[in-house]
Amino acid sequence: MSHLLELRGVHTHIGAYHILHGVDLAIPRGQLTMLLGRNGAGKTTTLRTIMGLWRTSKGSVHFGGQDITALDTPAIAHLNIAYVPENMGIFADLTVKENMLLAARKAGNAAQMDAARLEWIFKLFPAVEKFWNHPAGKLSGGQKQMVAVARAIIEPRDLLIVDEPSKGLAPAIVNNMIEAFAQLKQSGVTILLVEQNLHFAQRLGDSVAVMDNGRVVHAGCMAELAQDAALQQSLLGLAL
């Protein structure tokens, strides 16, 4: 199996705190991988380390066969990797259109954005079109999450990394998000999702990695984990 992204023995310190303790993680190309684990297990730190926002103190990160461990965050993003952080990173005072335009590096103005791709995004996330000229800060949490993901895919990406896309969302919005990620997966993009919503994980995941205490303690097929209640209990302290 071809892996698009690999972490090999990654350690990350934040100040005096040793957060990641030798993370080994392989993300298969063209699949949706769920990164699960209890709060504080190191999931968000893993994503931030991949993006160069926090530095590895030991180990390496490889993308498409290239060692990207020492690259800064803008250089990593330019490799066609998009990252949606847990706080969504929306520019509240800008309109939805202006938020999207900032992410569309090839467009100097709204008219230069890829019309066909925008149409596809509007079908995935109707709220993006509906609130196109509204300040993004005035949107609901679910609408902001849609804008954040839409902004990340305004240009074709090789890898999409999203931290807890369903957090705090109403069930109807969660189902909308599941549909959108299913379509994104079908379009061929490789996706890495951190998620606490196990229904979300079960519906979407091809492969899964479970973290605990700064390490990956289980990696395999999502369907196998979804069918093994004892394994879920031991890894996550709860059952799907």
From TrEMBL:
<protein>
    <submittedName>
        <fullName>Amino acid/amide ABC transporter ATP-binding protein 2, HAAT family</fullName>
    </submittedName>
</protein>
<feature type="domain" description="ABC transporter">
    <location>
        <begin position="5"/>
        <end position="238"/>
    </location>
</feature>
<keyword id="KW-0067">ATP-binding</keyword>
<keyword id="KW-1003">Cell membrane</keyword>
<dbReference type="InterPro" id="IPR003593">
    <property type="entry name" value="AAA+_ATPase"/>
</dbReference>
<dbReference type="GO" id="GO:0016887">
    <property type="term" value="F:ATP hydrolysis activity"/>
</dbReference>
<dbReference type="GO" id="GO:0005524">
    <property type="term" value="F:ATP binding"/>
</dbReference>
<keyword id="KW-0547">Nucleotide-binding</keyword>
<dbReference type="GO" id="GO:0015658">
    <property type="term" value="F:branched-chain amino acid transmembrane transporter activity"/>
</dbReference>
<dbReference type="InterPro" id="IPR027417">
    <property type="entry name" value="P-loop_NTPase"/>
</dbReference>
<comment type="similarity">
    <text>Belongs to the ABC transporter superfamily.</text>
</comment>
<keyword id="KW-0472">Membrane</keyword>
<dbReference type="GO" id="GO:0015807">
    <property type="term" value="P:L-amino acid transport"/>
</dbReference>
<dbReference type="InterPro" id="IPR017871">
    <property type="entry name" value="ABC_transporter-like_CS"/>
</dbReference>
<keyword id="KW-0029">Amino-acid transport</keyword>
<dbReference type="Pfam" id="PF00005">
    <property type="entry name" value="ABC_tran"/>
</dbReference>
<keyword id="KW-0813">Transport</keyword>
<dbReference type="InterPro" id="IPR052156">
    <property type="entry name" value="BCAA_Transport_ATP-bd_LivF"/>
</dbReference>
<dbReference type="InterPro" id="IPR003439">
    <property type="entry name" value="ABC_transporter-like_ATP-bd"/>
</dbReference>
